[in-house]
Amino acid sequence: MESIGFMPIDNRVLIQPTDPAQSKGGIIIPDGARDGRSYMGVVLAVGPGKPIGQLFNTDGAIGPIEYRRATEVRPGDIVFYTEYGSHPMTWEGRTYRVAAEDDLLGYFPNPQRGKTDGQG
């Protein structure tokens, strides 16, 4: 899995699109995923989370923003997303997608999850 140094904002994820015909692990992709209704990719990075509120100090100044987890997915997970719910991004000749958590349709956890990132 590559890292391009891009960090998504809020609850967004960076996705490297994959060709369903090249899927590893024996995942069978439905025909709908091949004709433009949904897409598949590998998560490369996740944002820090969606802001859930601002804290105010006693003098009324805005304090630090609290965040929740960006999404259930982690780098290395395989996700399904919609074409119009994600935004294309080209960096150094390669195309990626950036999608908000709400625009992900589902995912397959990376089998190595928890072994490398402390999550599980």
| Overall number of structural domains | 1
Radius of gyration: 16 Å
The name CATH uses for the topology is: 10 Kd Chaperonin, Protein Cpn10, Chain O
Our measurement of the CA-to-CA distance between the termini, rounded to an integer number of angstroms, reads 19 Å
Outline the low-pLDDT stretches.
Answer: none
Provide a compact summary of the structure:
By secondary structure, the chain is mainly beta.
Descriptive overview:
It is a single chain. The protein contains 1 helix and 8 strands, in the order E-H-E-E-E-E-E-E-E. By secondary structure, the protein is mainly beta. It has one domain (12-108): 10 Kd Chaperonin, Protein Cpn10, Chain O (Roll), CATH 2.30.33.40. A 6-stranded antiparallel sheet has the order 6-7-1-2-5-8, with no helix packed on it. It has a two-stranded antiparallel sheet with strand order 3-4. The longest helix is centred in the first third of the chain and has 4 residues, at 31-34. The chain is elongated. The two termini are 19 Å apart. The mean pLDDT is 76.
